[in-house]
Design a protein that fits this description.
This protein has 438 residues and is mainly α. The protein contains 18 helices and 2 strands. The protein is elongated, with a radius of gyration of 28 Å. Pfam families: Mlo.
Length: 438
Amino acid sequence: METVESISLYYKPTWVVAAVCFVIILISLFAERGLNHLGKCLTHSNQDALFEALQKLKAELMLLGFISLLLNVFQGLISQICIPSHFESTMLPCKKHTEIKGHENYSPPAINNERHLLSEKSGNFSDHCSLQGKVPLLSTESFHELHILIFVVAIVHVVSCAVILVLGRARIRQWKPWEDSISTVPAGPAKVTHRHHLNNVLKKLAWGYWRRAAVISWIISFFKQFYSSVTMSEYIALREGFIMTNCLSHQEFDFHKDMVESLERDFRHVVGISWYQWLFAVVFLALNVEGWHTCFWLSFLPIVLLLLVGAKLEHIIVRLAQDVDVMKKHPGQESAWVRPSDEYFWFNRPRLLLDFIHFILFQNAFEIAFFFWILWTYGFHSCMMEKKGYIITRLIIGVIVQVLCSYITLPLYALVTKMGTASMAESVSVPMQSPGII
């Protein structure tokens, strides 16, 4: 067998070292220059919110790189920390000394055998601890696997952010014909059109005693997010309420453009990773114990939270319609419109819903990254991969959450939060001009 020295750079051809370094540096430079070019394009097109989102994304990638650097720096020190061997037998992701039987038990794939053998030769930390009757806190191989996890998390995070922006913009683009249909109508007929659409909203969401029951209205809101999250009548009614409350002095306000910019501001928020999300990731790793099926059960958390947030956003539209219906029954209020207020949101905080969406997207992306990390590092038939039924369910839930949140919930949030005071102040602070008459 080769000696440890033969693996070191002492005995590697210099051209091999130089070639590997050249390729890595070249790839890194292409990525860095590409991000800089994208930032310049966003700046030239006056997309400040997206530029700030890109800067935040670069900061998160730098943080992941810093974590990887710290793992490298402290690898030797941590590997020399020895712990009693019985500590290593608790909370394991796989059972030790498992015999190979079918595809359900753990067997390291052959592709990883060489790397595993290499890590054993790279030092004598294990021997150092075995002389004391103990085991290393983390082996060199474990550090290498953590590096792979960080890399996969970074890739999935970037892809997830791209999907969020593309699907969100595609959804809001579908509302553009509604905006154009109103902007081209003269002032007099526009009022008649608004009353027509408002009556449609009231007819569907507010008229009828049974629809005022809290349970019934929540049930309607829950199912509405799947088949008709926003209708043309609802869009026009909310648009008119926003403009009548805040933009009477701005006779040419482009509500749809403001919606796009609101989505970009929300995107700027969700691309970041908060401290409590990192804490969740650590807890997720700690609870990945054999037999607990933690990955499977936690995969339901994002979709449950997402459906709850979506139902709440739809319920706000229902509440707005019901309140308008009540106002119209009072004398002199026949021409009442939707009136924005923070009281429709949980704890009078519209931003709380965005925090939920932020957490949902991060957890879903992390679970998807965790799946691909196991697939890359240990193989499909690893014991950490669990049963095929669990795997398929987790993947389906992950895709549903990503698409539903990006295409339905986040654009719906951008629209509904126009009914909050903070969003109103942010939008009206810089009026946007567009041809057309309100």
